[in-house]
## 1
Amino acid sequence: MVNVQEVDVTADVLGHKCELPVFLSAVAMCGLGHVDGEVAWTKAAGAAGVVFMMPSLASKSFAEMTGAKVDGQPLFFQLYVNPDRDVAKAMVQKAENAGCTALFITCDAPQLGNREKDKRNKATKTAAVHAENSQDTSQGVSNALTSFIDPSLCWDDLAWFKSITNMKIILKGIQTAEDALLAAHHGCDGILLSNHGGRQLDTARSAIEVLPEVMSALRENSLVGKLWVAVDGGIRRGTDVFKALALGANAVGIGRPVLYSMAAYGQPGIERMLRLLRQELEMTMRLTGCVRLSDIKESMVDTHNLRDHIATVPRDNLYNGVYVPPGLPEYGAAVAAAVRAEQNPASLMAGLLAVLLSILKSIGLTVIGSSQAAMLHRSAVFLIVFLVVHMLGNLSFLVSDAAFNEYGHKLDVLRPATTAIEIYLLGAGAVHAATAAAASWRKRKSISKEPFKSGKLLFTSALVTAFVFVHVRQFRFGPGIGEGYVVAGADGVHVRDLARLQHETLSDPAQVGFYLLSLCAVGAHVWFGWSKAVPKLVGLPKEHRGAALSIGQGMTVLMVVGFALGPLYTLAQASNGRVQEL
């Protein structure tokens, strides 16, 4: 319940107050899409109150682009570093003299990628900034412009750039946390995370995927707020802008939406697109209870699918789907055959195996790491595995007293190992309790308001702790370790008479009732914990969550039933003995 009647989407973008946390990212050769080219971008940016990043490989001249801006309109400049540093220096200083306040140095394109569409189209228009130079456009404009980009650009060159300009220096095309830290180390004012519109290195991750690990690295090195961070690529909706800001970006760059709007409607199209983007961002903020951009938090975005996700092969919408053939009878037969294949037992088993492997993989990814969440889940997984193994061992009591004693003897024989496991169990239990207590402390207000809904894990854990204390005291450090509880084993070796101890302890209905109540608490704790953990499993596809939930809950029921069989069987034997005595 937040008053969201007035939503403020204005932002500071590298020292400029803008109407949106958005800037128009540089796109080369815009004149191929519309006769006005970059001039339309400049005018639309001025009208919308956002910044335009002028491209160095523009179809319009520098004078035409800067001449179209309104008074006080900020501009950025994107630079492909020329092999001739005198040419590069002249371009940088020309941009600064024209009023550009930030220099975006493209660092992800020592060579332009294999742009097959460009090669097929063979556009002949060239960049205005290089119009005086001869360019071979027979293999497309991108291939021709590669000759104007210096592949020897490196970190050492940043000192030279800082010596020739007072503009803020931003590295455009950062794609790893390591490079983000290096940019800060070399004195850059900011970074623009980008995979160059997906047209450089095939299968490179998008900027939004890289953003969380970059922000994590900056936080660890106390650089958040000191290094400006922006993203571009794949931003199509206001919700995309919201997600980027939530994950730590200071601003968002857009390219293709501007290009497509310009190609269809010129300057008015760009302005209309920016209005739609603003409306969508405002709507998203209202629906999430955000009045200003600073209210947007990382917790509002689920990032579990970013690290490990399964994506379909990208569809080339520019060339595919132009012609859709009419439905043919054989298509229906093929669909029917596919349905029959899904009903095949072998197919069903393969599908189940795939789901199980997916769940196991997700659990493995979730428990790796040093975060508090990873520690909590890792200790929980170890404790659950121990409970299942311990339950299976206890079932030997149903076979015979001798089998149960032999099970205990094998554990004694392996005593150094079992002692180490016990110590690790105590540590895992302590870690689990500590991390859970920390989480409960953070949720103390909601627990006090809704104790059953928010505090069920806390209350069941208290019962479980009491049960573990009593159980360990009786069966690990109780009279069962004394000389009075020794019996000859299968090989004549004296073993602890754990069966006798179990008969004496669990012949009392009150003791059995306590054990059954405690087992219900254990089951409830595992049930609730698993239900809460499944949506947080790293990389688990949404379609597998239901199966993961059912498998965990089914395992919990079987575990509780398995543990309960021993006390119930012992009590039944004792009751039968008492009846016979009567």
## 2
Amino acid sequence: MYGKKLDDRDLEKPLAAHSKKCREPPPAHEFSYRWFRGPPVEPCAFEGCPRRTSFSPHDWSMHALGGTGCSLQCVSTQSSLFKCTFCNSSCFVSAWKTQYTVAKDRGSRSGTPVHRRAASFGTDDDKSTDGSVASFRRNPYSDDGSAHSNPGTPRANSGGYNNLYGDGEQKEEWLEISRDQLYIPNGEDCGRKLKLEAAAYSSETGELLMLRVVKTDIVLARAPDPIKRSLVTAKTTGAAGGARFRIATYNVLAEIYATQQQYPYCDFWALSWDYRFQNILREIMDASPDVVCLQEVQADHYENHLYAAMSEHGYEGVYKQKTRQSMGLAGKVDGCALFWRRTKFVLIESYSIEFNELAQRQATQVMGLNPRSDDGVSFLNRLSKDNIAQLVVLELAQPSMRSSRDQINQICIANTHLYSNKDFPDVKLWQTWQLLQELETFVLARGTQLPLMICGDFNSTPDTAVYDLLSRQTVHPGHPDVNVNTDDSIPNILPDAMNITHSFQLGSAYQTVMGDEPKVTNFTTNFKGVLDYIWYSAQNLRPLSAAPIPDEAILTRNGEALPSTEFSSD
């Protein structure tokens, strides 16, 4: 169930027409809660409908329902399906093939035919008017309750399925299951509705001050476990020496970006963080990595959900949010999080890189610009995109993990998320170049034998200058990303292409193991391609295996694109 917590800004907004505001503060009061479980629900009259027996989120998405999210009711009074309700048009068409005409009962005053109806959630007590077709957007978790002025006559909410099918099921028994403020549904609740009675009583007299009753929609089961992604072993010869570890990188799609406007093909309940977080966490745990690099981690989610969950699974971590201020409320800004398994590694050093700060340093110390001049302001505006990077040095936790002939027991890992706008390839290249410059200074100061891995969302496909710089140590002077058309409004932020270099010998883990980069790491209706990479220093690290990205048939089996009910990030 969903609610909204008011903040000080809400008090300044005008009240809605149906809202009332107490002129005086409410008297001292206490709350009581009662949760009830309803009878089983049959949401579709078609006997072959999977939703009659399955309450998996995959079977209840817009994609599974044909994209309409509409329920249909038969209104033909001479049909054997009269008043039967179907979850979508496909089920209605399939059931219509089995219907038959029912003769009228001559003894009936109303002229309504007497016929046997197929099993349906709609009953004779249905409140829906004959001849109407109900339409709705499905929410498998809850509907907001309706407030009523008379606390003595609470009424259930009439949204969602209640509005579609009526409240005939209320005649059956509702079983009380909890009196706690918070109730977490379990397997026994699947396929049923839940009802909450919340009452406020005066602390002094015990008088009932207010009572509200809210009824949820049908409770769905948790999403099935993620698909198993078997590792593909690299085609190399010879035994691998030294310690082994597994690393994963994942852009988890921050809640502030997971909107219906951006992903209209995904159900709004499948976009909610409460739903997606559990799927993402299970997917990470199923991969069983020793190091996890995450991008688009919302600050409040790291504090309230992610760190505790990862810690419970044996990980320690660090977090760095983007440079910009939060989007409205505290914590509503994303960043990067880096975790490592406690039994595998211990943290030796941890740093963060702010590209805004590097831009300021570049403008003043390298180019000699006054940050308040027109040129300085234009330069900084072009580069100040709030992106950041993380940098840690990890050491093997136990000496027994180290190879007797290889004394390397530390590794440097960088995690970053570059600027996303496709119209700023020069900014992405500049950020990559600056990151490599910072890493060169850092790694070389600790000896040339320190292994390096760079993970993250680079928002750059393999045909970009960013990929060329990482993989080839340089960029071609004629590359389009180096020659962005500049004018008075777009300053030239890049040095000569011959100076955009680095000294690392980097390899892409997927390209090395699989022979090529994956077809996609980002799969939406607007873009399908590779943006995420795992880079390693080839002189002292060797990738042994990689988990292939699922193909398009698997990615689209429960949704048009990502995110979907199965894959909770894009």
